[in-house]
Specification:
With 614 residues, the protein is an alpha+beta fold. The protein has 18 helices and 26 strands. The strands form six sheets. Strands 1, 2, 3, 4, 5, 6, 7, 8 and 9 form a nine-stranded mixed sheet that branches. Helix 9 runs parallel beside helix 10 and helix 13 packs across helix 15. About 12% of the residues have low confidence.
Length: 614
């Protein structure tokens, strides 16, 4: 078959497959055109998820008759004044969007410039241009796209439901609204909630308001500000607290020079910054804005312009990680409102429906007998405080097993006062079920998971010691022998160098055993055998593809779990206070190594509401 030139209309329809793959893509292109025209208000209307109608109206600069005719010609644009593709400061520059949309739909554009007496209207029906005609409207442009993909019915088979397509378009509008807080955005359509984001400014306060409008009150209350400027790169935005996570990466909002992007490098940098803080399978929530010299970033990677490429990718990655890390550390220790709200909801749910109603006890002597106080038993064997990472001079832990339903008060009247604002975790007042510390603050109470909190503290201590190349070890007087499968011994001994760096010195002891010569001082006694078993499982799960840094951190987390105070151990009041003070001094201690919150806060006002006092 001989080679022949394709019909221009067919060429446009083929190209439309890259630029406009669904209604949301058409919305994106049209709204970006409005913003490039200097619009301060953009209104979007959808019908049938955008398949029947997409209408985008703006108050931008508009077009005259000549520009209106050129706007639907391929590779005709006003946004690329020269030939430099590496200094692009606008959304569009290819001149492909309107011709591509016009090739697969019925398109009408009505536009008017400020100094013109009337508007002009242009219609294109599946690539066929209609004569220009006069119209009426104020300054700006209205683009109507009807019967999208009517010219290519096969494309309709790949679209989702009307609601799903409308939600995808709404997500596009939300991201563009986050990128441009100075403009007002509205969206209305069948089956979705209307959007209306008011016009703002370009300062930090306007950005914070817009992010709060789009992402909601919960994100605003559980995030900290980002602000870093180095090496010609400015990073702004808001990073969610580590315990405020989501089930997908959709909560990671990235912007480069005012352009919403989905970039693997930036996403990986965000996840690396949260690596020790967010559990596997969960994702952080963040709105990250990068301002960089246009010559240092290439947006001409894909027709959709959603991908970017940085000239100095490693520098950008490092600064993103630094900015997020500094923001989270500077936030101190903060509770996640989700956890507190769930706790209040549980308290407010009342009695179980299946529980028998409460009955007044009968009039008898036994009903009014005094309640015997709980016996405060003590263990005779103290546990070394250094094993738990508390400050030197702190008294040893003493613990004893008690019934799981016990609550122990710790002579709170004799305890020092830690209820001021300088101590957000307050003063320990009781230990519940040998696992939860109840502390009183100046405006409420705090409930701490002692194992989760101490596990985090030990982990942070081990990380600091590893960074300083001085993990404290203890030599075993008698080497601990651990029996393993021969294959497991080989796997473990192959990683002996890494383990030695972490303070665990092992060597072969026959064909099916290893000997532990030295162990980190932070590890609790009697936990080495279980630790070795867990390490074997971890090595088998990782294989060899995981980066060394992640492997080391995972090993430290495993060691911290075995070195932390366990559930079921009773602590004295001063020991509980020591744990609280160390949490306040340790960045990241508001989440455990698995990403769960280590404490929740209940405000006194909320507690009073539970009892009908407010």
């Amino acid at each position: 078959m001989p080679i022949r030139r394709l019909d221009p209309v067919l060429v446009d329809r083929i190209a439309a497959g890259e630029v406009v793959e669904r209604p949301a893509a058409a919305v994106k292109e049209l709204v970006e055109n409005a913003l490039d025209a200097g619009a301060t208000r953009v209104d979007v209307v959808l019908e049938a998820g955008g398949r029947r109608l997409i209408r985008v109206s703006d108050d931008g600069s508009g077009m005259n008759a000549e520009d209106l005719l050129l706007s639907v010609e391929r590779h005709a644009t006003s946004k690329l004044p020269g030939e430099d593709l590496f200094a692009i400061a606008t959304f569009g520059f290819r001149g492909e969007a309107l011709p591509s949309i016009a090739a697969v739909s019925r398109l009408e554009i009505i536009s008017r410039q400020k100094d013109e007496s009337a508007a002009h209207a242009l219609s294109v029906d599946a690539g066929n241009l209609r004569p220009l005609r006069p119209a009426a409207r104020a300054r700006g442009t209205t683009v109507e796209v009807r019967d999208l993909f009517a010219a290519v019915p096969a494309r309709l088979k790949f679209l989702k439901s009307d609601r799903a397509e409308a939600l995808a378009a709404a997500d596009v509008v939300k991201r563009l609204a986050m990128a441009h807080p100075k403009a007002r955005f509205t969206l209305s359509g069948d089956g979705i909630a209307a959007l209306d984001y008011g016009q703002g400014g370009e300062d930090v306060e306007a950005l914070a308001r817009r992010v709060g409008e789009v992402l909601g009150r919960e994100f605003r209350e559980n995030s900290v500000g980002l602000d870093l400027a180095r090496e010609g790169l400015t990073i702004r935005g808001f990073a969610g607290l580590p315990a405020y996570t989501r089930g997908s990466a959709g909560a990671i909002h990235l912007f480069a020079n005012g352009r919403p992007v989905r970039d693997k490098l930036l996403t990986a940098a965000v996840r690396a910054a949260y690596m020790d803080l967010v559990p596997t399978g969960r994702y952080p929530a963040i709105a990250l804005y990068l301002d960089i010299d246009p010559r240092a970033v290439d947006v001409n990677v894909h027709p959709a312009k959603a991908e970017v490429r940085f000239r100095e990718a490693s520098l950008v990655r490092a600064l993103v990680i630094t900015a997020i890390g500094e923001a989270l550390r500077g936030a101190g220790i903060r509770p996640v409102t989700q956890a507190s709200e769930r706790a209040l909801a549980a308290f407010g749910s009342g009695w179980d429906r299946g529980r028998a109603p409460y009955r007044q006890p009968g009039w008898n002597a036994q009903a009014f007998a005094p309640v015997e106080p709980a016996t405060l038993s003590r263990a005779s064997t103290p546990v070394s405080p250094t094993a738990f990472g508390f400050a030197e001079g702190q008294e040893s832990f003493e613990y004893a097993s008690r019934p799981s339903g016990s609550v122990e008060s710790q002579a709170s009247d004799l305890a020092p006062s830690f209820e001021g604002e300088a101590h957000p975790l307050g003063a320990a007042r009781a230990q519940l079920h040998e696992n939860y510390i109840v502390a009183q603050t100046h405006d409420g109470l705090v409930i701490v998971d002692q194992h989760a909190a101490h596990e985090r503290l030990v982990y942070e201590r081990l990380k600091r010691e590893r960074s300083a190349r001085r993990i404290e070890r203890q030599i075993m007087l008698t080497p601990e022998i651990v029996d393993l499968d021969a294959a497991d011994c080989v796997k473990l001994l192959a990683e002996a160098g890494i383990l030695e760096e972490l303070g665990l010195v092992i060597e072969a002891f026959g064909p099916g055993a290893i000997a532990i010569r030295e162990a980190p001082a932070a590890l609790a006694p009697g936990k080495l055998r279980q630790l070795i078993t867990d390490l074997v499982d971890s090595f088998e799960e990782w294989g060899t593809a995981v980066a060394l840094e992640r492997k080391l951190d995972h090993l430290l987390a495993t060691m911290a779990c075995h070195g932390s105070v366990r559930s079921g151990r009773r602590l004295r009041a001063e020991e509980m206070d020591a744990l609280l003070r160390q949490m306040e001094r340790t960045p990241g201690s508001d989440v455990c190594n698995h990403g769960r919150p280590t404490f929740i806060v209940l405000k006194l006002a909320d507690i009073e509401r539970l009892f009908g006092r407010r």
